[in-house]
Structure formats: C-alpha cells, structure tokens
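Please decode residue identities from the backbone states below.
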C-alpha cells in the first residue's frame, strides 16, 4: 500500500514526519516546491511533480491544506485520474458541508474519504500528542486506524462524513473566545497597574481558568511575541466556517460572532501573518486610558 501526502505546511510537515518515522510515507507534494525539497532532503520519500501523479501512484492520499478552496482545487486536479478503490484522508479544517459534498463526489468516482481534522498545535502533532477526530464510514476508519495512530496517540471516531469537522469546530469556537478573553483580561490588569508576573501566575497556575492554552498564550501576549503557532488568518477562516454552519443549522453563536469581529479587526490592522493571539493587541491601551470625565 502506497501513501502520499499533499500539503507540507505547519501541520502537514509534522504529519509527514510522523508517517515517515513509522515507515508509512512514500510520496509528497507541496504547491511551493521548496517546502517539499526541504522535507524530502532528510527522508527517503519521492517528491511528486504534481498532484495528478501523486494520486495516480498512491492508494491512500492524506491532505493537509488551508481551506475549502484549497481542498476543492486539489480534488479538481484529479479529474482525469482513476480514483477506484483509493482512500482520501483529509486533515484540513474545512466546512463540514464542503467535506460531505467532496466525500460524495469521491464516492461516485469509486473512492472513499475520511475527514480527520486535528486538535492541537504543530508542536503537539510533532510529539504525537494531537487529537484526531474522524468522520466517515466506520469500516473505512477501522481499516486505517494503524495509519492514524502513526500520526497521533489519540484518535476518536465521531460518526458519519463531516462529523469529525463538526466536533473540531466546537474546539475552535471556544479557543477563539478564550484567547480573545485572555487578551482583554491581561490588558485590563496591566491598565490597572498590576505586575505582569502576577497576571501570568494567576492565569497559568493559580486560577481554575488556567489551561494548556493559557500556559502557551499568556506569555506570548505579555511579551508581544506573536510568532505563528496557529495563524490569525486560519482562525478567521475557521470562525467564518463556524458562522456559516451556525446559519445553516439555526444555532446562535454570539460569542463566536464577537470573536470573529475582533480577529477580523486585528487582520485589518495588518496582523494577518501572525499567531491568532495577536488579537490581544486590540485591547492594548484601550483599558489603560482614562476616560474623559
Ligand atoms: N497550525 C495549527 O496549529 C493547526 C492546528 C489544527 C488544525 N490546523 C488546520 O490545518 C490546516 C493546515 O494548517 P497549517 O497551519 O499547516 O497551514 P499552512 O502552514 O498555511 O499550510 C497550508 C498548506 O496548504 C497548501 N495550500 C494552500 N492553498 C493551496 C492550494 N490552492 N493548492 C494547493 N495547496 C495549497 C499550502 O501550500 P504552500 O506551501 O504552497 O502555500 C500549505 O502546504 C488548516 O486547515 C488549519 O486550519 C492548523
């Protein structure tokens, strides 16, 4: 069985490294070839020149791409390849509706697909500590568990096509509001003249609202270190997906809508390439300034 990987970005390169370390990776493709070159330089994997040849060569194709459009583009490039009996494992965070429709299209062409979004940072993926949420046919999931466990220790079967993504969106809905609230609270505290070290201690150690995320993001916010772990652009993309799905299913998401506005504002202020915790910058000075009497 040959395994190919499309997309060697922050997450894809770590997924690729884990598959390769387990002896389960044969070919890779990345749109920007330099990333494929540097990934393959240290490994015995073939670099495919295009998506078509990777998909023709491989039985299982793992994809880790940015958004709905990227996954549609990728599948569109396989239009004249026979997909009979091939398995697609899409780990991109995309809209569940798009994923279900791509899965149905692949089904009509004789292939099967699992949606397997990732919960966890690039570092967590590197250590095998991310969580994979799986949507799709249970039998297909069972026949691919060995591959999924090569990527992550924790693999959860959720239900039919699209349901892995639906569970993943819950995570990002909370994460977006939580990190924006951390930014707001930190600048509220700083504006009140508190010692940054005490704010850090409260939010990461003393308080019951501490979390693995506060341990990572609070120091970043206090040090204005917005080096990318998960990009602002991708968080805005995910909030857009959440808003779209909420509209379709008639769910109220006021916290998500507010978070979407805050992250979009940060983007409009020119922070697009940076970590999503840069949303904290929206609160800088705002609470520190005295209101006019
Ligand atoms: N970073 C995280 O912490 C994290 C955590 C969980 C889930 N995710 C999700 O995982 C996915 C990947 O995230 P990432 O952080 O790895 O992003 P990234 O570093 O920006 O990588 C995105 C990948 O998609 C490729 N791509 C984008 N548009 C394409 C197109 N039209 N055709 C072909 N390839 C295309 C990029 O190719 P180029 O190199 O040519 O640009 C790159 O390989 C996203 O859906 C994200 O929401 C990320």
């Amino acid at each position: 069985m040959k395994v190919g990987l499309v997309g060697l970005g922050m997450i894809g390169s770590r997924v690729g490294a884990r598959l390769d370390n387990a002896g389960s990776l044969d070919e890779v493709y990345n749109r920007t070839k330099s990333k494929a070159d540097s990934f393959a330089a240290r490994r015995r994997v073939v670099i495919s020149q295009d998506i078509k040849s990777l998909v023709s060569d491989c039985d299982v194709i793992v994809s880790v791409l940015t958004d709905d459009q990227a996954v549609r583009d990728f599948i569109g490039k396989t239009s004249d390849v026979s997909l009979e009996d091939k398995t697609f494992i899409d780990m991109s965070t995309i809209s569940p509706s798009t994923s279900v429709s791509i899965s149905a299209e692949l089904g009509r062409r004789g292939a099967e697909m699992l949606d397997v979004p990732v919960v966890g940072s690039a570092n967590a993926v590197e250590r095998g500590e991310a969580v994979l949420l799986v949507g799709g046919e249970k039998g297909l999931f069972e026949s691919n568990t060995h591959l999924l466990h090569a990527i992550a220790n924790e693999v959860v079967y959720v239900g039919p096509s699209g349901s892995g993504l639906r569970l993943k969106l819950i995570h990002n809905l909370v994460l977006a509001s939580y990190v924006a609230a951390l930014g707001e609270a930190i600048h509220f505290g700083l504006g009140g003249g508190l010692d940054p070290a005490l704010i850090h201690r409260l939010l990461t150690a003393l308080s019951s609202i501490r979390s693995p995320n506060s341990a990572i993001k609070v120091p970043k916010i206090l040090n204005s270190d917005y080096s990318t772990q998960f990009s602002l652009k991708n968080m805005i993309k995910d909030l857009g997906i959440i808003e779209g799905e909420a509209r379709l299913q008639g769910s109220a998401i006021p916290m998500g809508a507010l978070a979407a506005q805050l992250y979009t504002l940060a983007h409009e202020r020119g922070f697009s390439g940076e970590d999503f915790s840069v949303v904290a910058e929206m609160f800088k000075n705002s609470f520190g300034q005295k209101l006019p009497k």
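Observation: Residues 287-292 have pLDDT under 50 and may be disordered.
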